[in-house]
Amino acid sequence: MLAFLTFDDEVEQYLAAAVLRPGNVPATQGAMGVLRRLLALLRRAFPWARFLVRLDGGFATPEIFDVLDTEPGLDYVVAMAKNSVLQHHAAPAMAAARVQIEASGATEHVYLDADHTARTWGRAPQDNPRFIYERIYCARGDIENRIKELHDGL
Fold this sequence. Notes:
Elements: E1 2-5, E2 14-18, H1 31-45, E3 51-55, H2 62-70, E4 74-78, E5 80-81, H3 84-104, E6 130-131, H4 134-137, H5 141-153
Parallel strand pairs: 3-4
Antiparallel strand pairs: 1-2, 5-6
């Protein structure tokens, strides 16, 4: 499990924590401890900062959301797997995007806000497209390259 930091609008991403775990453990194993410890250290180093936590969908659990929701001065973005409720919320934006695509012939982006609370927490479907915010969440793409380099180095 790896945690990276970025500052303001910088492109550079800094490795802040790395925990070697067995490959067959759930994504969330050890995540609460790393998250709490890292936030405490960052708050001491940057007491006036506002923090944004960006997580893969494997970390979308009630326990992690409970921690994130109670942290002051913290926002978070989680890549959520599609489900019927999110698809329903996204339907008007998807219709608008299709109209824009038809008119421009190019990829178009339409963003919206929606509130969603899961009634149950089950296993994510195998067909797993993501509902994400491109500028914030997708910026993690370069991190994936650093992770691959780390794996190759090991």
